[in-house]
């Protein structure tokens, strides 16, 4: 299982080539709406974008911007070049999905036995599984949307897939010490993603599941599985609390007295911080060496890799100190860097225990903070104010907590209540919270997006309510099924029927995904549970963690692609599933039958690609630039326009 054969290796590169060509042709030739313009500017001049900064994303984007500036004097080429970073990242992501699917399909057929060999037909079917999974990922609606613009989500997807690929590669190898370098590389990849987006670290609990099953191949203990998941969650908490926030906190601990009391320059606190971290790693490695403990050695090597990966955050401080024109929050010292990394400007959302939407603020807690003034750190320069609510207005797992922007009436509507009347009992019940979670957060903000990608999409309009049959719903193209939810489709105007964003896959991706899912679950329970963990954590897990209120300013499907790519892997596994059915039940095997199985399932990703092309290609889009030009042309010469963020 160490190396893929030539056919399997070439399959991944074929997926990359197809995806790259499609994305290069469909990428927007100028800047896009939302954060994209900010990121183009940030990459081109290495400026400081909104929290938490995405420093590695900007460094890589700067290379693409430099190439764009080099080949053309047209400023639009700079934006197009940075857009291409997303295109290539997504193409590589699709290739990684292909290779992961090939490895797991191979294990499903012959196990993790190094000596076992695939039959000729099985070899082709396994290659077909990778081709289907890779192309399905490339042509997923949510994935291809991010591939055409410069946003952090495409590069974040790349690091997520790179991490998962390294994890699967480690798992497929024999349990020898030399194989563990792939596990450490997976951790390093997840650490690098901190400089882009935190999505990749959500792969760590799944990594822990695969670790448990590799180290305990004959065990099937629910307790052991639960402990492994908890260990993965603990690692995520460690990364967020000690690495992302903890290291700057240690820096601040040394920084303030060194500058204020000893008169040393700003940033002097980085020296003892680096020495402390280096000493911890040195002592840990020496202890592991003296006690001949490979586990402790890996623990401290992994910690060192995380620290090295996190060091890209230094770009934020360096560029903020240069006072670039775009300098969000000015995080030019450690006291302003901490709230920047914590994303404090966006506020906090209830997770385990929080207030209801009609909660009364009974007090506020003020925390004075240090800030840099004239080369010295002074207390009280900034203040963090935290509201405190009445105990009767607090509850476990509060899903309905936001009383801003008219959301109280929206909560009531999602509960099926009159928005103009008081809620019964004066506050939401636990049942109300669960109802809102199921109907809105899971039903509307996850399941709808899932079906967009594997059944079809009604149109390109944003959907705000599940009782609105005209905007943002999923459809399949199977008329009786769609009319059960959306009414008489014969009454649609021609404009709606011919909408380019009306994409129908006739449930084929969904059906093939279910075939692969059940086949994988039946053949290899351990690997299936690992993938299932990744599927749930990067889907429903994100939904629960973000605790989204109605209405979001735009569709949020792009944050859930980690869940979607796992389903694409199962879609690919439908190829060996069908081939094995032909081989065992009908005694039909060989290259021809494997080709038939591959061709049948390949219909799904090809249908997705052709259906999505006309509305996902942005080759002719220039609306963002035109809007900006019109805006600037509407004001007098030398006027000042105040703007922020987007």
Low-confidence stretches: none
In total, how many beta strands? 6
Principal-axes shape call: globular
Mean pLDDT: 92
Radius of gyration in whole Å, from Cα? 26 Å
**Cα end-to-end separation:** 48 Å
- Structural class by sheet pairing and helices: mainly alpha
Order of helices and strands: HHHHHHHHHHHHHHHEEEEHHEHHEHHHHH
Percentage of residues in strands? 5-15%
Taking strands numbered 1, 2, ... along the chain, how are they ordered across the largest sheet? 1-4
Largest sheet: 2 strands, antiparallel
Number of helices: 24
Work out the helicity level.
Answer: 55-70%
Helices, strands, pairings?
Layout: H1 6-26, H2 36-45, H3 55-71, H4 75-110, H5 120-139, H6 141-147, H7 152-172, H8 180-192, H9 204-215, H10 222-244, H11 246-260, H12 270-290, H13 294-310, H14 314-321, H15 334-341, E1 353-355, E2 361-373, E3 376-389, E4 394-396, H16 407-414, H17 430-454, E5 456-457, H18 479-486, H19 494-497, E6 503-504, H20 508-523, H21 525-546, H22 561-585, H23 591-616, H24 623-633
Antiparallel strand pairs: 1-4, 2-3, 5-6
Q: Which short descriptors sum up this protein?
A:
646 residues; mainly alpha; two-stranded antiparallel sheet
Describe this structure as you would to a colleague.
- This protein has 646 residues and is mostly helical.
- It has helices spanning 6-26, 36-45, 55-71, 75-110, 120-139, 141-147, 152-172, 180-192, 204-215, 222-244, 246-260, 270-290, 294-310, 314-321, 334-341, 407-414, 430-454, 479-486, 494-497, 508-523, 525-546, 561-585, 591-616, 623-633; strands at residues 353-355, 361-373, 376-389, 394-396, 456-457, 503-504.
- Strands 1-4 form a two-stranded antiparallel sheet.
- Helix 1 runs antiparallel to helix 4 (75-110), helix 4 (75-110) packs parallel to helix 7 (152-172) and helix 20 packs across helix 21 (525-546).
């Amino acid at each position: 299982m160490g190396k893929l054969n030539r056919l399997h290796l070439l399959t991944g590169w074929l997926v990359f080539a197809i995806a790259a060509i499609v994305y290069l042709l469909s990428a927007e030739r100028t800047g896009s709406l939302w954060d994209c313009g900010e990121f183009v500017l940030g990459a081109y001049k290495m400026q400081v974008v909104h929290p938490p900064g995405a420093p590695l994303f900007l460094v890589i984007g700067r290379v693409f911007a430099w190439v764009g500036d080099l080949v053309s004097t047209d400023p639009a080429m700079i934006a197009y070049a940075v857009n291409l970073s997303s295109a290539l990242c997504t193409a590589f992501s699709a290739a990684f999905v292909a290779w992961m699917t090939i490895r797991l399909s191979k294990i499903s057929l012959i196990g993790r036995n190094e000596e076992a060999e695939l039959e000729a037909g099985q070899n082709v079917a396994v290659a077909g599984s990778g081709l289907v999974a890779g192309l399905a990922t490339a042509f997923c609606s949510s994935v291809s949307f991010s591939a055409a613009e410069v946003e952090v989500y495409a590069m974040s997807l790349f690091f997520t897939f790179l991490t998962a690929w390294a994890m699967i590669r480690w798992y497929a190898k024999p349990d020898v010490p030399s194989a563990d370098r792939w596990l450490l590389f997976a951790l390093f990849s997840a650490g690098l993603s901190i400089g882009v987006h935190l999505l990749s670290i959500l792969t760590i609990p799944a990594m822990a599941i695969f670790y448990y099953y590799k180290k305990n191949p004959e065990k099937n203990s629910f307790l052991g599985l639960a402990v492994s998941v908890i260990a993965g969650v603990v690692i995520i908490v460690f990364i967020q609390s000690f690495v992302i926030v903890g290291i700057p906190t240690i820096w601040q601990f040394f920084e303030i007295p060194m500058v204020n009391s000893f008169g040393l320059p700003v940033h002097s606190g980085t020296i003892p911080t680096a020495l402390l971290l280096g000493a911890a790693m040195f002592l840990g490695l020496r202890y592991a060496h003296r006690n001949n403990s490979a586990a402790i050695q890996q623990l401290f090597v992994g910690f060192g890799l995380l620290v090295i990966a996190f060091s890209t955050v230094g770009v934020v401080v360096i560029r903020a100190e240069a006072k670039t024109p775009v300098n969000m929050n000015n995080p030019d010292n450690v006291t302003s860097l901490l709230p920047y990394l914590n994303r404090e400007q966006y506020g906090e959302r209830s997770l385990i225990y929080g207030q209801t939407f009609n909660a009364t603020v009974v007090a506020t807690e003020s925390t004075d903070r240090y800030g840099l003034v004239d080369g010295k750190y002074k207390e009280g320069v900034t203040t963090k104010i935290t509201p405190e609510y009445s105990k009767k207005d607090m509850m476990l797992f509060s899903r309905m907590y936001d009383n801003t922007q008219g959301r109280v009436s929206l909560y009531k509507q999602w509960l099926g209540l009159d928005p103009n009347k008081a809620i019964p009992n004066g506050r939401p019940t636990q049942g109300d919270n669960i109802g809102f979670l199921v109907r809105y957060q899971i039903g509307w903000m996850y399941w709808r997006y899932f079906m967009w990608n594997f059944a079809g999409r009604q149109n390109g309009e944003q959907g705000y309510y599940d009782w609105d049959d005209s905007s943002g719903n999923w459809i399949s193209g199977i008329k009786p099924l769609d009319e059960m939810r959306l009414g008489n489709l014969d009454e649609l105007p021609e404009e709606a029927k011919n909408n380019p964003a009306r994409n129908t896959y006739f449930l084929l991706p969904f059906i093939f995904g279910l075939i692969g899912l059940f086949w994988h679950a039946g053949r290899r329970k351990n690997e299936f549970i690992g993938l299932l963990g990744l599927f749930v954590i990067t889907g429903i897990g994100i939904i629960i963690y973000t605790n989204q209120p109605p209405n979001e300013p735009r569709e949020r499907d792009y944050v859930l692609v980690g869940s979607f790519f796992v389903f694409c892997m199962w879609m690919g596994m439908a190829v060996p599933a069908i081939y094995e059915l032909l081989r065992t039940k009908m005694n039909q095997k060989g290259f021809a039958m494997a080709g038939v199985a591959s061709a049948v399932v390949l219909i799904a990703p090809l249908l997705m690609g052709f259906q999505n092309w006309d509305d996902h290609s942005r080759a002719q889009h220039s609306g963002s630039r035109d809007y900006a030009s019109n805006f600037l042309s509407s004001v007098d010469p030398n006027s000042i326009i105040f703007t922020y963020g987007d």
